Structure prediction request, 150 residues.
Amino acid sequence: MKLSILCVDDEIPGLFLRKMVLEAHGYRVVTASTGQEAFTFAESMHFDAVILDFNMPEISGGEIAERLRRELPHLKIIMLSGYPEDVSPEIQGLMDAFVCKGGSPNELLQAIRTALDGKVQDGIESNPYVLFGNNPLIPELRSWKRSRQP
Prediction:
């Protein structure tokens, strides 16, 4: 039986690109473009994992993760964000894996395999695409981000 993944993102092109990649690798994928859609699907269907965009309007990926972890503790949560420095330690604790938005399809596939295998994502601080913890790129990224703000 195919493993089922709920993929949630308000950016439709990226959502459907991930759907195509995951289906090509044998997953059954259901997409949702809002937090409310995600809750509706999660309550009415079985999923092995959910891929959540962190920055979404109305209901953030973090809020979705909190509710899903509480209501469906078996569900593996993979967070996706272009702004990993905005993901709080509390939300990081809810995740089974993290992928920086804009990474390669292989990074997403590896994060899914890691989460589904029940392993802790190795080397989160040393992965150049993941900017949590003690990653030395965090101060540089924050400085660059501040310099670009009007």
Observations:
- The beta strands are 4-8, 28-32, 49-53, 76-81, 97-100.
- The first helix runs from residue 12 to 24.
- Residues 120-135 have pLDDT under 50 and may be disordered.
- The two ends are 51 Å apart (CA to CA).
